[in-house]
Amino acid sequence: MPMLAEAMIMVHGGAAKTRATGMLASSAPLFSRFSLGSLEEVVDGGYPHAPRGCGSQAWSITEWVRVRRLLES
After folding, report:
1. Can the peptide bond before residue 48 be classed as cis, meaning omega within 30 degrees of 0?
2. What are the DSSP E strand ranges found in 1-73?
3. What is the pTM of this model?
4. Which residues are 11's β-sheet partners?
5. Residues 41 and 30: beta-carbon distance below 8 Å
6. Which position among 19, 20, 30, 32 has the lowest Cβ density within 10 Å, counted as fewest Cβ atoms?
7. Going by C-beta distance under 8 Å and a sequence separation of 6 or more, which residues neighbour residue 14?
């Protein structure tokens, strides 16, 4: 999801900032849902958003934080 939020900004500029920020923020509960303080490698897009793959991925977290900072600037 972070890369999608970043792509929205790259394509649509500041007009997409609110939507991209909201989309990224919607994934924040995942930090405490499956792997406490971490993000899974893959989460199903459809409800109930079940985790798949590795239970904790460093690049999932770093991309989420990197794009959040990008959106805050």
Report:
1. yes
2. 42-43, 51-52
3. 0.77
4. none
5. no
6. 32
7. none
Q: Residue holding tokens 């999801």? A: 1
46 Rama class: left (phi>0) / alpha (psi -120 to 50) / beta: beta
Please, which residues bridge with residue 43 across strands? 51
The dihedrals phi and psi of 43, each to the nearest 5 degrees, come to -130, 130
CB 32 within 8 A of CB 43: no
Of 65, 39, 43, 64, the closest CA to residue 52 belongs to 43
Q: Supply 63's token pair.
A: 């991309």
Note the residue count of the chain. 73
Helix locations, the chain, DSSP H: 2-12, 17-25, 30-33, 58-72
- Return phi, psi of residue 42, to 5°: -140, 140
pLDDT digits (tens, 9 = 90+) for 23-72: 889 888 888 877 778 888 788 878 877 877 787 878 888 999 999 999 99
